[in-house]
Amino acid sequence: SELSMLAGGVLVLPVLAFITSFVFWPGALLKAYNWYWRRRLGLVVRYSHSGSYRFCYSSRGTPGGATPSMLLLHGFSATKDMWLPVVKHIPRNQHVVCVDMPGHEGTSRTCAEDYSIQGQVGRIHQFVQSIGLDKRPFHLVGTSMGGNVAGVYAACYPAHLSSVSLLCPAGLVYPTDSEFIIRLREMEKSQEEEEAIPLIPTTPQELENMLRLCCHTSLNLPRQVMRGLLDNRIPNNDFYREVFMEIVGEKSRHSLQENLPLITAPLQVIWGKEDQVLDVSGAAVLQAALPGCQVELLDNCGHSVALERPRKVANLIMDFLSAQEVTGEDAKKHS
Q1: Of 133, 117, 112, 116, which is closest to residue 50 (Cα–Cα)?
Q2: Nearest of 218, 308, 223, 213 to residue 270 by alpha carbon
Q3: CA distance 251 to 262
């Protein structure tokens, strides 16, 4: 069954200490907090269109700097704001674009075909064209579900990319089952209802279990904040379930694995050693298929590397970009 197959992504939302002192509107305060940090980090929310389809994204800086533009793709049931902790540690002169994936947050919600990995790749390609990001090669970053999309995008549109960073990507054949996959298989055997999908919580306890599954370091959020996070998610649960069933379906479950031979851009892989959603053994799969890739395994870190180790992730990506620029300059000198 599809429920026993691989899924990617996770809710990843930054949390600020002051929000815990409020009781009545934690969901609204979380949105206010994200607005505050976007402003503080210089990120501006914008919209672009491809026909009647609308993309929502945030960006900072302009193309044409010393390093390529950077496009970041979030994971399942998250939003562009999951990247705020990482962008905080990225140099101000770096052109950064964070987009809401198809159907998520401010981007158009259409039909199941758009939520398969190939469907998402097609929509991201439309987005890239709509904002002119394809005018020069850019660096693509994707985490979990977004990592699956980023890898397949790299296979489909190699000329558009200067390099790629994959963070705990979905879409591989993993040598070792993760805790998440084990739970899905147990759920399938016991014939539980779909509502029990670990990444689609419907109760405070299920949300707590999901966060524990996704983060190696406990967040210890107050009950009121947990309630607010859950209240924000529940209205979208039918949509999340539709996306989930698409990305674990036969067309998408191993999309990245199937496209690995077509990836030619320099590749960076970042993975938390304690990942319980997508097992870290996937890093060895990528390294075996693409021996030239750079692999970084993070100690004491789970699936949500952008939340748990944002400074480290930002530094690794920027170091990788700088190394690619040096390699490119050396190649020009010897040509």
Answers
A1: 133
A2: 308
A3: 17
Q: What is the pLDDT of residue 12?
A: 38
Mean pLDDT value across residues 162-169: 98
**Cα distance between residue 150 and residue 171, in whole Å:** 11
pLDDT of residue 279: 98
Q: Is 202 exposed, middle or buried (0-12, 13-18, 19+ CB in 10 A)?
A: middle
> Which amino acids are annotated catalytic?
144, 275, 303
Please give the single-letter amino acid code of residue 14.
P
What is the per-residue pLDDT for 189?
Answer: 74
Q: In this structure, which topology does domain 34-177+254-334 adopt according to CATH? A: Rossmann fold (3.40.50)
**pLDDT of res. 331:** 54
Query: pLDDT tens digit string along 86-100?
Result: 999 999 999 999 999
The single residue listed with the structure tokens 């996306």 is 243
pTM given for the model = 0.90
